[in-house]
Automatic annotation (TrEMBL):
Biological processes per GO annotation: polysaccharide biosynthetic process; UDP-glucuronate biosynthetic process
Recorded family membership: Belongs to the UDP-glucose/GDP-mannose dehydrogenase family.
The name this protein goes by in its record: UDP-glucose 6-dehydrogenase
Record-annotated UDP-glucose/GDP-mannose dehydrogenase C-terminal domain positions: 319-423
Residues at which NAD(+) binds: 30, 35, 86, 121, 158, 269, 333
SMART domains the record matches: UDPG_MGDP_dh_C (SM00984)
Binding of substrate, residues: 155-158, 210, 255-259, 263, 326
Pathway the protein acts in: Nucleotide-sugar biosynthesis; UDP-alpha-D-glucuronate biosynthesis; UDP-alpha-D-glucuronate from UDP-alpha-D-glucose: step 1/1
E.C. numbers: 1.1.1.22
UniProt xrefs under PANTHER family: UDP-GLUCOSE 6-DEHYDROGENASE TUAD (PTHR43750:SF3)
SUPFAM superfamilies found in the cross-reference section: 6-phosphogluconate dehydrogenase C-terminal domain-like (SSF48179), NAD(P)-binding Rossmann-fold domains (SSF51735), UDP-glucose/GDP-mannose dehydrogenase C-terminal domain (SSF52413)
Length: 442
């Protein structure tokens, strides 16, 4: 099939590459010329395991092209995916400007039938706005062309995006139109071989499903972080509780890891956007705001724990392992590491930071500053530091020689924001250990 994907951000690029990989002819369009030039040169602008190889192979095979030309992009696809960003407005409402700009360009350039697919995370009712925008653009041209709009939300996680796209639990399509169903079935057929993962539902149900999924996962995390706060005060190890409740299949082990709060481009944004949707409907949501409030507080927990242990942090040097909001990405959007570092700087402390992938992102965000040393590796980060904080659970941080570490840290303190270590292993080496939901165990 001929497919065009508008937007070469995370979702658009992974979707475009994976659809080309199974034999579709894919054009990826972006209004950013630098990004397109970069992709045309064979460079991958985002860090995602496995993506570079797929981009390279499919570009070489002629199945994947990149363009900044809207007319060409619209003409070359029978199915047009909209995968542009929906950043939050000041009040958290999803900003649909980019989505509707694409819809308008489609209406301005289409010459025959098009199936328009909303892949961006968009509030309920957006497909109707896309339809109205395309219709208006066609009216201004004085032409009539048939088109359909359906919703096909994406559930990929950064760091596992290829796996999630190709082997996801479900493919949700919001449409009640039989022709659209069969086109979407054909588009996803290569990824839908062993059992039928396609779920058809109303457009609005598909749009709401996306937000509900992210809000549910964020709720699980905030719930667990709240129980972790109780566990700390009750002298209980939250890790025992996590295993205890996770073993109940009705709860499950996924997304109940306590930590220093969720970050990234999705959970924080989507929980706020859903809250705003509820308010716009005259319904005051009780749970969504609480999920967000618990997370905001949790992101401050690393700084609080450091202060509790060390008192005034002015003049202290804190090593930070992990800057990305989670492993296997270089993304620092809403990362707990940022809340920590900004609070440390405010308190007059210095930071020595290391992350296996996010160093250049950190440099881009904070530039050169006297109170930030970007370390070349994890060893350099702890040299001469008073304490160490773990913000991201990268695999490389899992095994540590704690005797060596104890020799490095002046205050012999490790704050483990991801509960990576066994508290006894650190106390045996003479280190003070503070985890999340288990700090009393040191
Ligand atoms: C999330 C969803 O998991 C995807 O299904 C969805 O498609 C995506 O948002 C999106 O809407 O685009 P992502 O933000 O990439 O994916 O990352 P997650 O792996 O879900 O992690 C989000 C945050 O939750 C991270 O900061 C992570 O550290 C935190 N987390 C996750 C916990 O604190 N505890 C857990 O048990 C799990």
């Amino acid at each position: 099939m001929n497919i065009t994907v508008f937007g070469t951000g995370y979702v658009g690029l992974v979707a475009g590459a994976c659809l080309a990989e199974v034999g579709h002819q894919v054009t990826c369009m972006d209004i950013n010329p630098e990004r397109i030039q970069q992709l045309e040169r064979g460079e991958n602008p985002i860090f995602e395991p496995g993506l570079s190889a797929i981009l390279q192979q499919n570009r070489a095979a002629g199945r994947l092209r990149f363009t900044t030309h809207t007319a060409e992009a619209v003409a070359s696809g029978d199915i047009l995916f909209i995968a542009v960003g929906t950043p939050p407005d000041e009040d958290g409402t999803a900003d649909l400007r980019y989505v509707l700009n694409v819809a308008r360009s489609i209406g301005e350039h289409m010459q025959g039938y098009k199936l328009i697919v909303d892949k961006s995370t968009v509030p309920v009712g957006t497909a109707e706005k896309v339809t109205a925008t395309v219709t208006e653009a066609l009216r201004l041209r004085g032409v009539e062309h048939p088109f359909d709009v359906c919703s096909n939300p994406e559930f990929m996680k950064e760091g596992a995006a290829i796996e999630d796209f190709t082997r996801g639990a479900r493919i949700i399509v919001g449409t009640e139109n039989e022709q659209v169903k069969s086109l979407m079935r054909e588009c996803y057929a290569p990824y839908n071989r062993n059992h039928d993962k396609l779920m058809f539902m109303s457009v609005r149900a598909a749009e709401l499903t996306k937000y509900a999924a992210n809000a549910m996962l964020a709720t699980k995390i905030s719930f667990m972080n709240e129980i972790a706060c109780l566990a700390e005060r009750l002298e209980v190890d939250i890790e025992d509780v996590r295993r205890g409740i996770g073993s109940d299949p009705r709860i499950g082990y996924h997304f109940i890891y306590p930590g220093c709060g969720y970050g990234g481009s999705c959970f924080p944004k989507d929980v706020k956007a859903l809250e705003q949707t509820a308010r716009q409907l005259g319904y005051e949501p009780a749970l969504l705001g609480a999920v967000e409030a618990v997370n905001t507080r949790q992101k401050q927990t690393l700084f609080t724990k450091l202060s509790e242990q060390l008192g005034d942090l002015h003049g202290k040097t804190i090593a930070v392992w992990g800057l990305a909001f989670k492993p296997d990405t270089d993304d620092m959007r809403e990362a707990p590491s940022r809340t920590l570092m900004e609070a440390l700087w405010q308190a007059g402390a210095r930071v020595q930071a290391f992350d296996p992938e996010a160093m250049s992102e950190c440099r881009r965000l904070y530039g050169e500053r006297d109170d930030l040393m970007l370390a070349g590796d994890r060893i350099q980060a702890v040299k001469g530091a008073d304490a160490l904080v773990i913000c991201t659970e990268w695999k490389m941080f899992r095994s540590v020689d704690f005797n060596w570490l104890a020799g490095q840290l002046t205050d012999k303190l490790v704050v483990d924001g991801r509960n990576l270590y066994r508290p006894e292993a650190l106390s045996n080496a003479g280190l003070r250990y503070v985890g999340v939901g288990r700090s009393n165990l040191a």
